Structure formats: structure tokens, C-alpha cells
Amino acid sequence: MRARFRQERSAVSPVEKQRIDEGVAANVLQSGVYRAAKTVFLYVSTAAEIDTSRILADALRQGKTVCVPRCEAAREMTARRIRTQEELCGAGAFGILEPSPDAPIVSPDQIDLILAPALACDRRGVRLGYGGGYYDRFLHRSNAFRAALCAESRLLEALPAEPHDERVQYIFTERQVWQVHET
Asked: DSSP string of 146-164?
């Protein structure tokens, strides 16, 4: 499944990708859950992922506490506080920009909103990530509102889920903010 969604994602034209990125960012920035959050944890996007640079810049400009992932040993991820985008100093374990190891760690219980990447999502809040489990382990340790950023074309009715998969409460696409309702 991951290979299929990666291929679908890479087949999107640059113009369409920009439209998706801008729509997702606009929906995040206009949402009540984002506006109310004082501490936001969000991924630093790669060229293939939904672009988070506009959200990151806005959160910093608004004076929110902004933290981004840093991959550590033992397949764990920590939330590291940054005050400027320039603090993203180098490529980490997966070639993704990360803060320095000296950047302050923010405890998962201090975070109000987590914005996670997704290859695909379903309407029940199941998020298909990249298979490393980094976000599932991190989400498990936090009571923050959880959201995934996903293209509308990859928001499905149902995805397979494992017992350890942590669900999200919101899915931001370029067309909508999908709020997952418990059943």
C-alpha cells in the first residue's frame, strides 16, 4: 500500500502539488484547533510531502511554541523547540532537516497540537505513515490534539489498522478539515 500511495503522490504535477499544499496550509491556519494551540509540533516537510513551511512560519510569527521532530537512537523521536527556521541545521537520519541535538526538548504532554505527515488517511482517523512507527510511538505519549496532513485524493473510507496504530482526530486536506467522530 505504501508503494502505491508514494507512486500516486509522485505522479501529481508540480502545479497540482502547489494547489494541494496551499489548500492544506490554509485549512490548518484557519482552523480553531490550530488557532487555540499554544504549543505546536509539526514535521519539516520533504519535497514530496505536504509542505509545512507556511504553517511553520505562521506559528513562529504568532509566537507559538514551535517544536519539530528529531529522530534519536532506538527509533524514537523527540520534539525539539525552535525559534527560527534557520535553527533547522542539517539533514537527520532520513535526510530531513532537523534542529541541533542541543535544541531544547519539549515534553509530549506540553504539546497542544501535533501535525503529522500521511501517505493516506481514512475517515476513522487511521493514518498511513512510512512504516517506522515514529509517530505512533510519539502520539502514544501525548494527549495533544492529533492531526494528519493529507491530499484529498488519499482520504479513504477505510485503511487497515494494527492495534498499535494511533489514530488522529483531524485530517486536513486541501478541500476540508475532517473531524473524526468516535464510534
From this structure: EEEE--GGGEES-----TT
Neighbours of 129 (CB within 10 A): 19
Contact 8, 118 (CB under 8 A): no
pLDDT of residue 94: 66
The angle at the Cα of 139, spanning 133 to 93, to the nearest 5 degrees, equals 45
Query: How does DSSP assign 70-133, residue by residue?
Result: EE-GGG-EEEEEESSGGGEEEE-TTS-EEE-TTSPEE-GGG-SEEEEE-SEEETTS-EE--SS-
CATH number of 13-130+144-171: 3.40.50.10420
The whole-number pLDDT of residue 93 equals 64
Contact between residue 112 and residue 37 where contact means Cβ atoms under 8 Å apart? yes
Quick: pLDDT tens for 71-108. 887 778 999 999 999 899 877 666 788 898 899 999 99
For 41-79, b/e burial (b = at least 16 CB within 10 A) is: bbbbbeeebbbbeebbebbbeeebbbbbbbeeeeeebbb
Grid coordinates representing 8? 500516486
Query: Is 183's pLDDT higher than 60?
Result: no
